[in-house]
């Protein structure tokens, strides 16, 4: 199964666009390709190389990706990325707990690591054209998301912190990799 773990960073914030997802612009996309075992990043001028990778995926994996990353990516794509099977780890947590938690909270409790920054810093790095910092931050989030995915697949639970206390949430990940047939509009001619 070809899995793509991914994350996007944006050029603007909720303070600038409100709750209008279509107002966001992507600064960089980071991904892990399980088939090639590589981490890569793509700026907008490189998206032509990104689309074939996403189109060949059996599953897209992210954190808050179904309601944020994928809809924003779809603005740039000529097909429909929602046709590819996706797993949103935050959505899986919400289905069990009926509340949201942060990637950093899960990473700290489950993996003993913290994120290397936050989204508002990524926007500042974009504005100041500190592209290496931006790319590395995005790829760090992809690495954390992949480790959380792998941990959950192996253990069927995650840990998170709430008010300084580590808590456990049971998540049934046994069917996460069940293969589904995907139909997608390809950007490349056949």
UniProtKB/TrEMBL annotation:
Pfam families per record: RNase_H_2
YprB ribonuclease H-like domain location: 6-150
Entry-linked InterPro entries: RNaseH-like_sf (IPR012337), RNaseH_sf (IPR036397), YprB_RNase_H-like_dom (IPR038720)
SUPFAM superfamilies assigned to the protein according to its UniProt record, in alphabetical order: Ribonuclease H-like (SSF53098)
One GO MF term attached to the UniProt entry: nucleic acid binding
Coiled coil: none
Protein name: YprB ribonuclease H-like domain-containing protein
């Amino acid at each position: 199964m070809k899995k793509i773990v991914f994350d996007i960073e944006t050029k603007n914030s909720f303070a600038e666009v409100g709750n209008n997802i279509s107002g966001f612009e992507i600064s960089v996309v980071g991904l892990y390709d399980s088939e090639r075992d590589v981490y890569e990043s793509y700026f907008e001028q490189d998206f032509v190389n990104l689309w074939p990778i996403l189109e060949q995926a059996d599953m897209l994996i992210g954190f808050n990706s179904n309601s944020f990353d994928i809809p924003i990516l779809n603005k740039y794509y000529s097909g429909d990325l929602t046709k590819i099977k996706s797993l949103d780890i935050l959505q899986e947590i919400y289905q069990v707990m009926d509340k949201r938690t942060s990637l950093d909270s899960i990473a700290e409790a489950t993996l003993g690591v913290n994120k290397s920054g936050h989204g508002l810093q990524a926007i500042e790095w974009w504005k100041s054209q500190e592209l290496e910092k931006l790319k590395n931050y995005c790829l760090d989030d992809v690495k954390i998301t992949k480790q959380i995915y792998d941990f959950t697949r192996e253990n069927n639970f995650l840990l998170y912190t709430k008010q300084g206390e580590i808590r456990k949430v049971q998540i049934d990940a046994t069917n996460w990799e069940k293969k589904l047939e995907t139909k997608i509009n390809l950007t490349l001619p056949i």
